[in-house]
Amino acid sequence: MNAQCVFLSFVTIALFSQIVTEEVNTGNDAAVETPATNTPTFITKPTNITVNGGETVTLPCQVKDLSPFLVVWRREKDKFILYAGDFKITRDSRFRIEGTALVIDSVQDDDASDYTCQVGTTPPIEITHKLIVTSPPHVTTIPVNGMVLVDSGNTINLTCVPSGVPTPSIAWTKREGSLPEGVKATGISLLIRNASRSDAGIYECEASNNVGVGQTQTFRVQVSHKPEIEVPVSRKHGNINSNVELICHVFAEPSAVVYWRKDRSNAVIIPSAKYKLKRNGTTFSLVIEIESIDDFDNYSCFANNSKGEASESIELTGIPATVEITSEKNTESETTYKLTWKTISYYRINRYIIQYKNILEEWTQLEVKPTDQKGPIYEEVFIINDLNPGEFVVSVRAENDHGWSPENDEFRFTVGSTISAGNCWTIFNHNLLLMTVTVSIYRYLHD
Predict the structure, then answer these.
(1) Which of 221, 217, 195 is closest to 205 using CA atoms?
(2) Which one of 97, 139, 306, 364 is at 20 to 30 Å from 271 when CA atoms are compared?
């Protein structure tokens, strides 16, 4: 028997009971049905009612001039009759009637629905409430295990499907870093196009809807790519009868096979008393015992995996390091400049070459003998004389028995009170503006 049939049966019983009661009270030998003359109206207005799961909710249904009519409660999502008057049809013990109101204890997510309160007039009248049951956020990840592996250049696609009432919002973050520039940080999907090594890492999506505690899910993203090599320095200075360490940082997915070659022989270097190979995470080292001048050469760090190969070279040399000029950029002297510099050399410096010039003149070159120092750090001072006020550029190179240091970047300095060409134009424009304003004021006062 379906719900509607049960409802009709109870309504029949209710009407019969009402007739019998009236017959007894009036003393009549036969039941006489007296038609209702009143017209019920609703005092309660339809509304949306929001409740948290587990709480108790009351759905009101106040009716004016109800008697002798019945109130029927119906759940709309399955058209199920819950109550007809005081007669309970549902077997769910959480539902009960208080007067004409429907009460639901320990509300569950499945209770969310429209509920209709109907009065059995002809035709029936009714109002409908919408019951909204809130629930805390929950997230399902795609892929479910949160593990993502993509090839370099492809698109990373992470998806978090939220559930909960109200519908949760999703926010994305990257642990120990930030999202790539231009990538949208909200929405159910996170898309990173043209993936590179820097995009690998742990990503998190957080769902929140202000109900309970937000839920976070984690993705671990790996980006497959050919090896990438970084060297801290491209030139290393050494000395015979000493050890030197050459370093390269290798990044690869999957892991790479790393080896070293000496350019002059092009042979793969095998660990020995002369060569020691070390590894610490992504850092690979070649320690060389320098025995002779033949050890000064280019050494290459190679790495290969299934995605490709890469290499970077480091020069091992005995020449001095690039000279670093440490002077002040300005001097108040009108004719002299104190030039200071330093370099590193494991062999005695034989001489320095200083080149300088006013920016509008030709180069002047000086050869300077080094002071007596043990090294390997050499620091020098030299006074350049017979200068005129102006802006100058200077460079310094050092020589030892193995050759000349690399050229350094030109260093600029100023002697005396000098106005650069750019500053000169600024002052000219300022003075021109001041003169124009002065003339305008004069004409205004004398017109």
Answers:
(1) 217
(2) 306
How crowded is the C-beta side of 174, counted as CA atoms within 13 Å? 18
Length of the chain in terms of residues written: 447
* Whole-number Å distance between alpha carbons of 338 and 392: 13
CATH number of the domain enclosing 377: 2.60.40.10
Domain with 125 in it: 41-135
**295 CA to centre of own chain:** 47
What's the total number of domains in the chain? 4
Residue 104 located in a structural domain: yes
Q: Look at the pTM and tell me if it is higher than 0.70.
A: no
| pLDDT at residue number 438 | 54
Q: Which of the residues in the chain have pLDDT under 50?
A: 1-32, 418-428
> Strands 189-192 and 298-305, how do they pair?
unpaired
One-letter amino acid at 427 equals: I
Q: Are residues 254 and 220 in the same domain?
A: no
Q: What's the half-sphere exposure (Cβ side, CA atoms, 13 Å) at 388? A: 5
Q: For residue 375, what pLDDT is reported?
A: 82
Q: Which letter does DSSP use for residue 120 in this model?
A: -
Each residue of 179-235: pLDDT tens digit? 988 899 999 999 999 999 999 999 999 999 999 899 999 999 999 999 999 999 999
